What does this fold into?
Amino acid sequence: MNVFRILSAALLLVSNISLAGQPNPPGQVQAGEQAKHQAYLFAHMTHEDYGRLYYSVSLDGLHWYRLNDSKRVFNDYQGHPDITQGPDGTYYIAGNTSDSSPDINIWRSKDLVQWDKHATYRPNLQATPNYSQALQRIGAPKLFYDKASEQFVMSWHTPHLNGTEEDPERYWNSQRTLYVTSKDLKHFSAPPQMLFDWDIGTIDVFIRQAEGQYWSIIKDERYPTLDWPTGKTVRIASSDNLFGPYRNLSAPISPNFREAPMLIPSPNGKAWYMYYEQYPGVSYGLSVADSLQGPWYQISGYTFFADWDKYSMPEQLRHGCMITISKAEYDKLVTHFGIDKSGK
It folds into this structure.
């Protein structure tokens, strides 16, 4: 009888352990609470069709589903998609056909369904002050509309050294973030300017305004070593001014060898979700904080074990941008393109 009781107690303990759930990420809407952010759009590329435009959507910022039967949503687009919304509600997306293309292409949309060509911009990279050695390369254009100054900021990364067989990483270490401004995304300030005064490589940089400050979210593009352990991680810096100087560059928010960060507010507006890709196309990570200054911690997900994942994405997604949208916009996208709830 004692043996039976011991075995029963052991089985009950194992059962309770297997049923025990990890705490859910903060920021979700509770019963009786109204969502501050109703829905989300992830405009991205895919592993098999790199550089082309696809959509996934979410209602909670954690669980994402493909649209349009996993087909392109706009055939003309090429680039690393980044979307911002202007003061009149119009959406703009920037891209370029390759890093070696001299042009940045911009399209506009009223509903995120139909896109029309808006402008083409060709920066004079060598005219950038203190950066005459810039190579003719434009990586991952990003867009931000600053309500305070009523202007758009378009940024990208440009290197100044070619890689060599002995040191291919020097190309990436030499990346610097440049920007121009515009009132209408047709006419741009000249020449481009450098966003940071840091002597480190930066790519995938975007700007946000929140919590009374401006924030630059970056990928630290130096290669990780014992001398530079923050290499190939996502970090964040702050400034009182749109164009800096940006200071208080954070410790890594992500592990090494992550890129293409994306930042969205949680549905209740009380937390921040920072996504980033483990490249090349391996998985997505998610870090969470209740303030952009941190501290940040990582959430478990993208393991494809439902009892462990606290967030989920379809397989084979590559980087792009995430934005908040209204429930009406979400419903229109789902109605127009159709949604795949299988999670594949």
